[in-house]
Amino acid sequence: MFTPPRTHDESIGAFRAVARTLGIIMLCGACIWGTRPEQFSPANKPVGAEIVIAVGGAPNFRWGELFAVDSDGVVILFAVDKDSVVIKTNRLVRVAWGRVVQIKVDGMTSEYQIKKGKTVTAEQRQRLALTSRFPQGLTGDLMARVLVTLKQEQLVVLQ
Amino acid sequence: MPRRQTFRRRSRIVALAAGTLVAAGCVHTFWQTEVRAVPLQARADTSSTFIESSLKAHLKDGSTVLFRGGASVSNIRMTGPGQRYEFMGIVSREQNSIPMDSIIGVEAFERNALALKGVVASVAGSLVVSVASVGLAIALFGSCPTVYSDTGTGPMLEAEGFSYSIAPLLESRDVDALRVRPDAKGVVRLELRNEAMETHYLNHVELLAVRHSANALVMPDQTGHTVAVSGFATVSRAVDRTGRDVRKALAFSDGQLFSSAPSVIQNAKEGDLDDWIELDAANLPAGDSVAVVLRLRNSLLNTVLLYEGMLGGRDAADWLNQSLQHIAYTVDVGRWYARTMGMRVSLERAQGSSNAAPLATTRMGDVGPIAFRDVAIVLPRSAVNASTSRVRLRFVADNWRIDQARIAGIIARPTVIALPVDSVLVPVSRNGRPAIDTAAIGALREADDTYFETIPTQRMSLVFHPAPAGAVSADSAVTYLIAWQGWYREWIRGSWLTHPTRTEPFVPGDAAVLTALRRWTERKPTFEKQFYESKLPVR
Hints:
The complex is a heterodimer of chains A (159) and B (539). With 159 residues, chain A is α+β, with helices and mostly antiparallel strands. Chain A has helices at 12-29, 41-44, 122-129, 140-149; strands at 32-34, 50-55, 62-69, 73-82, 85-96, 100-105, 156-158. A six-stranded mixed β-sheet of chain A has the order 6-2-3-4-5-7. In chain A, a hairpin with a 3-residue loop joins strand 3 (62-69) and strand 4. Chain B has 539 residues and is an alpha+beta fold. Chain B has eleven helices and 32 strands. The longest helix of chain B is centred in the first third of the chain and has 21 residues, at 3-23. Chain B is globular. Chain B starts with a helix and ends in a 6-residue tail after the last helix. Chains A and B meet through helix 1, strand 1, helix 2, strand 2 and helix 4 of A and helix 1, strand 1, strand 3, strand 10 and helix 5 of B. Strand 1 (32-34) of chain A pairs parallel with strand 1 of chain B, so a sheet runs across the interface.
């Protein structure tokens, strides 16, 4: 909004206030981008990264927590909208690579992204896996325990 | 020297110094977090290594131990101040040592600085001194990139791009129909400007060329896809929420703009912020769709929402730098904005129908308050070849200035030829001479990870070479559109810090919109004048 320059009297205190204000602007002009480990959830909690995924055949991007990555696909705990409020539904879904259009990882650079139209390499899968909740993989007993904890009868699979 | 003059002189010096540093462009520091697997030591290796990075150990029983300050790692155990979370647990307990044979794997989260990765700065000069002398506390004008063409009588504003993409995660692509024509040599030139207190990050720019019949208009539809519309019907009725007949205001593109009635604005409340316009079309030609063809721009309501709502607190920098860098929060904000703002267009049932629900609804996002945009909002008809249609345009009260509204009955998807940027010419570069910005050409040619950065007052010519049009018959024409993608960063205005308009964290919702509406209504005439007059001169 338009704010005319303040007319101060000739006090040094007023001058210093102006300098401090402009100093604040200078600090804000130092643009700091990106995520440091202390701001990255998986580095500070026992969770996987938040991701946004575009699934082939589904109209909108979906977001959720990355649970695991392997050669078959990704396992995601999906969040969905309900009455315009995003809530977790504890719905664990495996999305096969054939259905993955695009993945963006919250707070990470494009090296951790799966880009539209590009073939996913083993190196990319490995890099993405390290941001998941279970980088060691989620199969067998471990998967069974996860499903019990989430009160989900079986893993939903999108082939 | 009198004390008042001394004070003003000193203030000006500080302002100039600070303004120069800031206006020369942000000092970009790009951090990235990298995750790597920590190789576990062989049994024979008894040495111990201290790893400073944040570490996460995954144990065989499914639990996790976090060593946020790093840990000492040997072939026997990991030692350091740690927090253990049981399997799928959220509560932790202290655990400062774990045997290595209970660990499946360990991750390290490392911080790396990337200087200016993926950003190409323009070589264009900038009126740094002028920016400082305007006064950081005063400059108000904000937009996004603007594009002009030369009509022979001076520059003409053609379009503004990705008006609400204020953070990287909100990067978007806009398509705008242009009035530009190729010059005598068949070249299309557009002047790209940064006229605001913003840094613009352009990812991709291309020119779209569409050949079509002379009686059709070509423009983007509500999703940004190009459409050719013709077969305009009679608008037999156009009324707003108060019942006002607004046909005259909407009939022609004549500068007579529709805006919401004062009573609608006054009565807006949480849960009911909207105004609407109903249009009845008659004598539609045969077809299965209708297009609501609008020429419109936004009012400054959502500028007030942005500047005094979202950015109106002392936490503005954190909100831009931190909150909008995270997907979950940005998704929340984006979805709220998309639900609330913009325009919802619905195909209504015939009067007297027992069912009040519309037959079909679509939506269009805000287009920005600077340049008028032509857009065709396509909807199915109530029945194939139906000759009448009723549509309702619904929007937050006073969010739009609509110059013209028509209904078309013939909609076609023409062939679009995409033309990359051929050259970027800077009329005044940093060394004072014209230059070709070759780095910009590379950055703008593809929608990728390389962005072209511009700072306030910079301008440059984008040059396109369309293929020769060939024999253009009397019943065909070529329309050009610009397709551009990117995002921009608002510079934090001094007044947002010295005179914040909110002291609580920004909460997306009806209350925020209502507050912005009240503020906007109170000082509309002066705010509009100041906004458009504070556009920064380009060099």
